[in-house]
Amino acid sequence: ETGVTQSPTHLIKTRGQQVTLRCSSQSGHNTVSWYQQALGQGPQFIFQYYREEENGRGNFPPRFSGLQFPNYSSELNVNALELDDSALYLCASSSQGNFNEQFFGPGTRLTVL
Amino acid sequence: GESVGLHLPTLSVQEGDNSIINCAYSNSASDYFIWYKQESGKGPQFIIDIRSNMDKRQGQRVTVLLNKTVKHLSLQIAATQPGDSAVYFCAENTNDYKLSFGAGTTVTVRA
């Protein structure tokens, strides 16, 4: 059974640029959630995808967008990067109906200069 | 803003002792409360959850207690081991898709 993987592990961008982060869900999981974790804080929910549709969204602006593919992998896109977007971005997969137990990847550390 | 929060940001425990990590919440409509553990360089890992209509649930070396009267949640770890050193988050599930996490408690186990 393959766990959740994310790429890249680290990324450095400058303000105004765009970034795409990728996530492969755990085998058998059809739901992917994305979280932003600032240093020293808990993860903050960005959005969730189920069957290639956005299934819920947190308090993040529209420049945060996502996709889910038929194989349940997912992308997080952030446009017009701001300094405050610097954080660890976590992807988590789960099976439908068991959202409490989400399986997290190791995250992508994004630094915006 | 956050609706779950932890009482103490850090906790130092002697190996072999029991650990108690506390969390307060404000949203009475939460269906579930969940505990996650995050080790350095890793994503959070599910420990245990408790439904809002329960008071206590036990897992392997862990017990979660829920006091709805005072809106308090705790995680007890028995016989704390060095591998238990991590950041512990309480979280709540209110909408069946979104987990809301608190800020975390860093647990350090002393040898």
Description of the structure:
The complex is a heterodimer of chains A (113) and B (111). Chain A has no helices and eleven strands. In chain A, the strands form two sheets. In chain A, strands 2, 4, 5, 6, 9, 10 and 11 form a seven-stranded mixed sheet that branches. Chain A has strands at 5-7, 10-13, 19-24, 31-37, 44-50, 53-57, 64-68, 74-78, 87-94, 103-104, 108-112. Chain A has 113 residues and is mainly β. In chain A, strand 9 (87-94) and strand 10 (103-104) form a beta hairpin. With 111 residues, chain B is mostly beta strands. Chain B is built from no helices and eleven strands. Chain B has strands spanning 4-6, 10-14, 19-25, 32-38, 45-51, 56-58, 62-67, 72-77, 86-93, 99-101, 105-110. In chain B, strands 2, 4, 5, 9, 10 and 11 form a six-stranded mixed sheet that branches. In chain B, a hairpin with a 5-residue loop joins strand 9 (86-93) and strand 10. Chain B is globular. Chain B starts with a strand and ends with a strand. Chains A and B meet through strand 4, strand 5 and strand 10 of A and strand 5, strand 9 and strand 10 of B.
Give a short account of the largest sheet of chain A. Answer: 7 strands, mixed
Low-confidence blocks of residues of chain A: none
As a percent range, the share of helical residues of chain B equals under 10%
Major sheet of chain B: 6 strands, mixed
Averaging pLDDT over every residue of chain B, what do you get? 91
Q: Fraction of residues of chain A in helices?
A: under 10%
Using a beta-carbon cutoff below 8 angstroms, give the protein chain pair with the largest interface and the number of residues from each chain: A-B, 26 and 23 residues
Distance between the termini of chain B: 37 Å
Briefly note the structural class of the backbone of chain B: mainly beta
Enumerate how many helices of chain A there are, as a single number: 0
Low-confidence stretches of chain B: none
- Cα-to-Cα separation, first versus last residue of chain A: 37 Å
Instruction: Report the strand count of chain B.
Output: 11
Residue fraction in strands of chain A: over 45%
